[in-house]
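Researcher: Re-running this chain for the archive, since the previous output was lost when a drive failed. Same request as before.
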Amino acid sequence: MKRLTLLRHAKSTWDDPVERDFDRPLNGRGRRAAARMGQWLRDEDAAFDHVRASPAVRVRQTIEGIEDGLRRPLTPLFDTRIYLASAVTLLDVVQGFGDAGTALLVGHNPGLEDLLLLLTPDADPLRGEAEIKYPTATVAVLDLAVDAWRDAAAGCATLRTFVRPRDLDESLGPDD
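Model: Regenerated structure tokens:
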């Protein structure tokens, strides 16, 4: 059994005049949400043998917020393949996680959502929430019924947890 935690980067700003999408930073709500999700991970005693992440600015800043909430470093490996990757590319990344028992993958939508939907069977009871929307800074915890990451494949996982920032703090929900 392998445990994979997926984390979508926190809310980024569109107000910053950066030239590249890759360089977009988090906005204030995104920074608060990342720290809150880090606190939740600490409360859940989450631990990761391996952390892989997109090198985009908003992902790096999300990780900083998570680390603040966790009160410990994550020491991610930054992988350019994750930036705006498809589910197929993300699955390839996951299949290369080596000997880790628990892993955290931090990236972007729609790739993360599509990976979650690829790995979980249609009958998974929590899957419906992810099908509706995989919001920014949301954590999904999946148990993969495999002995080795290389064996990760469609339908091999059970979604154990799907936690959105708004589930923990109403003020971190969508603007209406």
